[in-house]
Amino acid sequence: MVNRDELNNYCANFLSVSKYKDYCPNGLQVEGSLNINKIVSGVSANLDLIELAVDEKADAIFVHHGIFWNNESNVIVGSKRKKIDLLIKNNINLFAYHLPLDAHSEVGNNVELGRILGIKNMKSVDDSLLWHGDLDTDLMNFTRLIQKELGRVPEIFGRKNNSVNSIAWCTGGAQGFIDKAINLNVDIYLSGEVSERTPAVAKENNLTYISAGHHATERYGVQALCEHLCTKFKLKQQFIEVNNSV
Ligand SMILES: [Zn+2]
After folding, report:
1. Angstrom distances, CA of residue 98 to CA of 20, 29, 32, 140, 236
2. Cα 99 to ligand 1 centre (Å)
3. How many domains in the chain?
4. Whole-prediction pTM value?
């Protein structure tokens, strides 16, 4: 069991939250019970996840995508009201960590995805959200590995050469970093989504672009964070998958 404020402070410190200029609040977003024993984690604080957390009698939910974003209206109506109402009625704390969780070198989305995909010599590029590393495989086997680990068929664009030795990646909707990946001279750039321009940019620059799913690439950081917190504070945790094909 841990005190809510102690947990919030610990995470702020551990994830270096103050270092990031983000477009959402990182940390406690909705206050629930003072003492926390059971935590659940999920990728996004949608209504399905909150309802499942209520069923599990969770004291806290940890997510990568919370419910407050700077570019959204800040009035509490409609589904936002419903979510906040459910959290408050059930005394559930909502903790959200966005960019600090992508970037973290131990439990971050990028490093965790890299581990799952067997990437060696993983490093963040200039301390940014873009990572690079080495592979020793071919495109067909690497695609199969992604499908097996992430449970979805990735979309492949651009260069289809078979042997792959280097990769850059950034989880989520980071297809815009493709221009930075080109400068790194890697064989593959992997992210979660694709834009209209991405296939042509990949082809014209002789790069393989892999779109492996925004949700699918961002399941792992929040789980690693919660496992870390469970060890540290002797809590119980459960990851709840709310299926999302994007
Ligand atoms: Zn995301």
Report:
1. 10, 12, 20, 32, 22
2. 9
3. 2
4. 0.96
